[in-house]
Amino acid sequence: MQAIQNEGKTGETMINQYLSGRSEAGLRALAATVTLTVTLALATLTGAEAKTTMRLAWAGSEDAPYAVAANTFKDLVEARSGGEIEVQLFCCFKMGGEQEMFKKLQLGTLDGAIIAQNNAGPFFPLIDLFVLPYIFQSYEHAEKVVDGEIGARIAEEMLEQTGVHLISIADISFRNIYNSKRPINSIDEVAGLRYRVPKNQVMIDTYKAFGAEPTPIAWSETFTATQTGIVDGGDSGVYWMKAAKFFEITKHYAVTEHFALTSPFLVSDKFMQKLTPELQDVVREAGHEASLAGRQNVRDSEAALAAELKELGVMFTSPDKAPFIAAAQTVQDAFVAERGAPYGDYLEAIKAAAGN
Fold first, then answer.
1. Mind spelling out the 3-state secondary structure of the chain?
2. Long-range contacts of 215-219 (CB under 8 A, 24+ apart)
3. Does 179 fall in a domain?
4. Is residue 6 in a domain?
5. How far apart are CA 54 and CA 111, in angstroms?
6. How far apart are alpha carbons 227 and 213 in whole angstroms?
7. pTM for this one?
8. How far apart (Å, rounded) are the C-alpha atoms in residues 122 and 110?
């Protein structure tokens, strides 16, 4: 014990001698050096702790249309956040089906997702406006609505009602009818065919109005259901017709453009609340830019994909749309009558945007 005490005194004496031999200026410099070293160490530790992981999912494959928006978003966010946000991507139903993803966004167990708008409808009925048949007259009309005041108001209401941010629309494309039985040259030839639809009442009612037999089936089960004859067909844009390989089992494709796919890029509010206001802006801006990139990719590829599908044996027809549009009007009228004035006001505003 005495030896330890002596060693302690010796060490203390050596330190005192060292310090007494330095000038006041030297001591200040030493103190500054120590302070800087500690500060840098703490900054490094804090930076490591501040890094936030964002999990972004979609149901399709790695090369599906949503993948372009997702990968663009990842690159933009990681660069603009200076590495403070790391985006992890999950395709191929790894986070469940699209309605399951929406639930996870509400719970905060998933941070972001790109889904079809009809699968947000059960949680946020107002978005069913974008599901209505022939709601958009053209791509430009759809873009004017979703990127304009109407889209902003709907996004505000979604956040208020569900706790989920509608950042932007990642895909705008039109859905056409495919089937394995016969070419469709008129609305009369739709009658009697069993068509797969999502579990969405507007879409079910639309196919009934067309004279078909709608069968609600989850997207993940659609290929098998069509292949085994549970249904005769369904609908999709040319991008999904190719990406999901429906051309392998259905050879008739009627260009009806009855539904517009307007897929929302969604982010959980529980995730956003983890971020500084500056990083929230990074997520919003990157989400919108990535969505524009996703849309453009689909538009740029549609003509080439249609040509590929024809080479693969898919037969395209172009039935008169007027009877389809007339049938769709009955669905729109019933929709407004059932849901009331706010929906009717939005519907009129959407229609008016086509002429602005």
1. CHHHHHHHHHHHHHHHHHHHCCCHHHHHHHHHHHHHHHHHHHHHHHHHHHCEEEEEEECCCCCCHHHHHHHHHHHHHHHHCCCCEEEEEECCCCCCCHHHHHHHHHHCCCCEEECCHHHCCCCCHHHHHHHCCCCCCCHHHHHHHHCCHHHHHHHHHHHHHHCEEEEEEEEEEEEEEEECCCCCCCHHHHCCCEEEECCCHHHHHHHHHCCCEEEECCHHHHHHHHHCCCCCEEEECHHHHHHCCHHHCCCEEEEEEEEEEEEEEEEEHHHHCCCCHHHHHHHHHHHHHHHHHHHHHHHHHHHHHHHHHHHCCCEEECCCCHHHHHHHHHHHHHHHHHHCHHHHHHHHHHHHHCCC
2. 218/97, 219/59, 219/97, 219/98, 219/116
3. yes
4. no
5. 6
6. 17
7. 0.84
8. 18
Spatial CB neighbours of 211, under 8 Å, sequence gap ≥ 6: 187, 188, 190, 191, 192
**pLDDT digits over 114-142, tens only?**
999 999 999 999 999 999 999 999 999 99
Q: Would residue 16 count as lying in a domain? A: no
Name the residue type at position 131.
V
Residues 219-227 have a mean pLDDT of 95
Query: Does 150 map to a domain?
Result: yes
For residue 144 the two structure tokens come to: 């004017």
Beta bridge partners of residue 236, listed in sequence order: 176
Q: Which domain holds residue 227?
A: 51-353
pLDDT in the model for residue 24 = 53
Tokens representing 281? 């802006």
> Which among 144, 191, 134 has a CA at the least distance from the CA of 333?
134
Give the Cα separation of 214 and 207 in Å (integer). Answer: 6
Adjacent-strand bridge partners of 262: 172
Question: Percent of the chain, pLDDT > 70?
Answer: 86
Domain count, the chain: 1
The token pair that represents 23 in the structure block: 């000038």
Supply the angle between the helices 341-353 and 322-339 in degrees, to the nearest 10: 140
Encoded amino acid at 9, one letter: K
Polymer length of the chain: 356
Q: End-to-end CA distance of the chain, in Å? A: 93
Enumerate the β-bridge partners of residue 27: none
- On whether the CB atoms of residues 170 and 263 are closer than 8 A, the answer is yes
Whichever domain contains 312, its CATH number is 3.40.190.170
